[in-house]
Design brief:
mainly alpha, two-stranded antiparallel ribbon, 20 helices, 395 residues, globular
Length: 395
């Protein structure tokens, strides 16, 4: 089972032996580029998460429904158990898409995708709890690596104390730390009405020093106030502000929801991947409409006329490009091994950070880059488990 933001892809037992490796690699890379571009433009254009969820899921539902009708595939699995599980995974898949879009509004793109890619960690945890599957030493090792990478990326303040780090690198404030200037100020308040003192100030030039100190203090106070306001409003930087950690919660919820979806799919016995993708789209449509009715400011339900033609065009293009990416990945899984596709998908993190730095100007610090690299290589390690262990056993 390969989980995607559009829904699960269940590989057939027999994969075509005459694989076109070049086409498979090309399609896998194209799917990663399209998925990353989709997330990037949702963030860059500040697209509403519910609007994007409704259009994307609606297109997905309509296209898959046409395919099911043309192949005369039943819209319901044969057993009651599978029907319940398929509907449940559809709702969970819709929630996963919404959470992924929502987290992009609160945190940088690279950090968001890094946390979303921790899904294998939560999958093995939930598989152990729900499916009672034994977890080998390989998964445990890379699971610990994922936890470490996730911590380095998030940089929780109770471990890293970003405020203290900022203080150690900041230039000391002359107003608070320069005792020479502070000790000089009281001298100007002594007997300023005295004629003798005024004459001394005129002769010695102290009045010019006094004016200079007052001007410096005023300028420094204004600059410090502007810097404090900037730091208070800068919620995009890791470790700064509540907004970032709301995004962290949403991104991790995306990973956990995707993991729970994978566990549910593992218990389904008589449903095709096309049918489950159809219910994934339908679940997204239901959730989008339900959440829209709860929001009185939602434009789709209460003021659809306010959505301009250009906005509809953007929503349709983003939804369509995501579907093309999903098809490209599904087709690549039939041409090259799933491990290769998983490795190429992990490169989405690199693409996300490149777009984040080059276009948005959000440069992550060294710890965040290190954490994201660990997460990426851990995902690759999970994907390569069977291949590497089989090679090791050969020797």
């Amino acid at each position: 089972v390969i989980g995607t933001s559009f829904g699960p892809v269940i590989l057939p037992d027999a994969i075509n032996s005459s694989r076109d490796w070049m086409l498979g690699w090309f399609l896998a890379i194209i799917s990663g580029v399209l998925f990353t571009a989709n997330n990037f433009f949702v963030k860059y254009l500040n697209v509403d998460a519910l609007e994007m969820l409704l259009i994307r899921s609606g297109l997905q539902t309509i296209l898959i429904m046409i395919g099911l009708i043309s192949t005369r595939t039943s819209f319901l699995p044969p057993t009651l158990k599978d029907r319940i599980l398929v509907i449940l995974q559809g709702i969970m898949s819709g929630a996963r898409v919404f959470l992924q879009f929502a987290c992009l509004s609160f945190m940088p793109l690279g950090d968001a995708l890094t946390l979303v890619f921790t899904e294998p960690l939560w999958t093995i945890i939930l598989s152990k709890i729900i499916l009672k599957i034994n977890i080998g030493w390989w998964k445990m090792m890379f699971g610990l690596f994922l936890v470490g990478g996730m911590v380095l990326c998030i940089q929780p303040p109770f471990l890293f104390n970003p405020a203290a780090e900022m203080n150690t690198t900041a230039i000391s404030d002359p107003i608070e730390n320069n005792t020479a200037i502070n000790d000089l100020s009281p001298a100007f308040n002594v007997s300023e009405d005295s004629t003798i003192f005024n004459k001394i100030k005129d002769i010695s030039g102290i009045k010019y020093v006094e004016k200079y100190v007052q001007d410096v203090n005023r300028i420094l106070q204004e600059e410090r106030k502007e810097e404090d306001d900037t730091n208070d409003n800068n919620d995009e930087l890791p470790g700064h502000g509540v907004k970032y950690f709301i995004g962290v919660a949403l991104a991790l919820s995306t990973a956990v929801t995707g993991a729970l979806t994978n566990v549910i799919i593992a218990k389904v016995e008589g449903a095709s991947s096309s049918l489950m993708v159809f219910y994934s789209g339908l679940g997204g449509v239901v959730l989008a409409l339900a959440f829209s009715f709860m929001d009185p400011d939602n434009r789709i339900v209460f003021n659809v006329g306010s959505i301009g033609l250009d906005e509809w065009l953007i929503l349709v293009i983003l939804g369509g490009s995501g579907l093309i990416g999903y098809y490209s990945m599904t087709r690549s899984l039939q041409l090259i091994p799933p491990t290769t596709v998983a490795v190429l998908r992990a490169l989405e993190i690199i693409l996300a950070y490149i777009a984040q730095g080059a276009v948005m100007g959000e440069i992550p610090n060294l710890l965040a880059i290190s954490g994201s690299s660990i997460v990426m290589f851990s995902v690759i390690g999970f994907a390569m488990e069977e291949t590497l262990l089989s090679c090791y056993n050969c020797y």
